[in-house]
Structure formats: structure tokens, C-alpha cells
Amino acid sequence: MVDPEGEILTLDEVAVYLKAGKRTVYRLAAEGKLPAFKLGGTWRFRKADLERWIEQQTTGDGQRGGKA
Predict the structure, then answer these.
(1) Would you tell me how many other CB atoms lie within 10 Å of the CB of residue 39?
(2) Which of 23, 25, 29, 38 has the highest count of CB atoms within 10 angstroms of its CB?
(3) Fold for domain 4-59?
(4) Looking at the whole model, is its pTM more than 0.85?
């Protein structure tokens, strides 16, 4: 069974999840502004990390360099 906390998402899945363009997600990951890691040259994202990142952005705890 898959542990939802440890669920790993692809760039395409994250774009849908965040309702953002794939280029935006790629850019944010490459700039280190979005929690991500590379696996075989492609970006992967842990859903729990994304949820924490969203919480930080909405509570003002995150470091904002501008609008994403």
C-alpha cells in the first residue's frame, strides 16, 4: 500500500495539484523555491513537502522573493 505522506508526484501531477503551469513548477523547482529532488534527471516531489510549503506560503512563514 502507498503511504499518502510519502506519496511522490511528477512535475505534471504537481502542476495539476497547484493549478500552475508546468514551466512555472519546473522553474520554481530548479531555483530551489519549491521542495523537489531529481530522480534520473527528472523532477519528483513529495506531497507532504508540498503541503508544508503551501502552509508556509499562506501563513507568511515562507521566504517570498516575489509572486510565483
Answers:
(1) 10
(2) 25
(3) Molybdopterin biosynthesis moea protein, domain 2 (3.90.105)
(4) no
